[in-house]
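#struct-help
A.M.: can someone run this one for me? Single chain, 428 residues.
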Amino acid sequence: MLTAARTGAAVLSALLLAGTAAAPALADSPSPSATVAVPSGLYGQGDPTYDGVWRQSLALAALAAVKAVPADSAVGWLTGQQCADGGWPSFRADTAAACDAATEDSNATAVAVQALAALGGHQDAVDKGVQWLKANQNADGSWAYNPGNPGDANSTGLAVTALIAAKADPATVARSGRSGYDGLALFQLGCAAPADQRGAFAYQPDPAGALAANALASAQAALGAAGGRLPVTNTNTVDAAPKALACPAGAAAQPVPRADSAEAAAASLTDRLAAGEQHLMLTLPGATPTPDWTATAWAVLSLVQSGHAKQATGAVDWLAAQGSTWTKGGTDASATATLVLVAKAAQRDPSNFGGTDLVQQLTAAGPALKSGPSSATAAATTANKDDKGGVSTLWVIGVGLLIGVGGGLLLSLQRRRGAQGSAGKPGK
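D.P.: on it. Structure tokens below:
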């Protein structure tokens, strides 16, 4: 993926981008092999070498979505990771040293731009990031994970969403006359593909130039095709199901038209979710397929952005029911932040998503907020416990008063206490 962590080597990075290693890519829980200390201000407790900027950006975008104001140290950590030329690497251990351009990547840059744009007040960093993306666009309109390599659907989709977040029209950001949308079209399966793959995106063409549908590539590229960015806030919905790609005679050799791209991608995602019991699957060569949390979450974001929130409902319910496995009780900051983004996009309550207070879990994974809804949650949680961790007499009295005043606030407190209890359960 480009999902959260990159496992270092170029070959493994390619696997992540292809979606073939989504689980380790998102795991930022502590590892026995971790050798880099977690810097102050960074969300999550795992080694940040391969996903520091990624998970920080998702966390800040999620906090912006719930209208929380993060600590200056959290925002300063992200802006401090930016290189002089405007790009971001996955992680800079020594920000006093000049960046190695070879370590800068479009994925980290794209999500950092979106997070800072969502927070507001960081226009210089956003503008520099956009300039870096423009400078490192391939001649065919696509973006690669690292500049100088062939483009891929995931990286191109992320770059397009970053441009949209920064109010730079991807249709006008072009290299050799090829725009970002032209770049996306390179990876979308059209009428020449089997009917059950049309509208999906491939990660990259195979050596023979053929395209094969990829769940994560489809889910992430579709957000860019639909004109979205993080956090997704679209509330316009379409009653009808998304329309599958129409294939009149003579259309087989043509790329998917820009006007049909998002709808065709949404139709493909809807069909694949239905076939997978409302979640997408991760398939590794020689391994048993497993649920792909990352792809499913991004599929929800893309469907909501395309106006098909109704078709995303089943996947949202699945993520709500199963999400604690992915987030590992909140210790995986990337996964937790992504679920906050999903909940907000789907107009669900992220403080009670499947019985879990995702906002509390996310804020507990980083520095204390300056302000926001989870600040009140944390204060209430602390006030409800005595020094030994039990329920205090004052809290019992308070419950009685709350019952007299109204049950709504009491129910809210109960949900918060229940969510905190579930947050302590181990993940998979």
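A.M.: thanks! The domain at 10-368 is CATH 1.50.10.20 (Glycosyltransferase).
D.P.: also worth noting: The chain has a mean pLDDT of 83.
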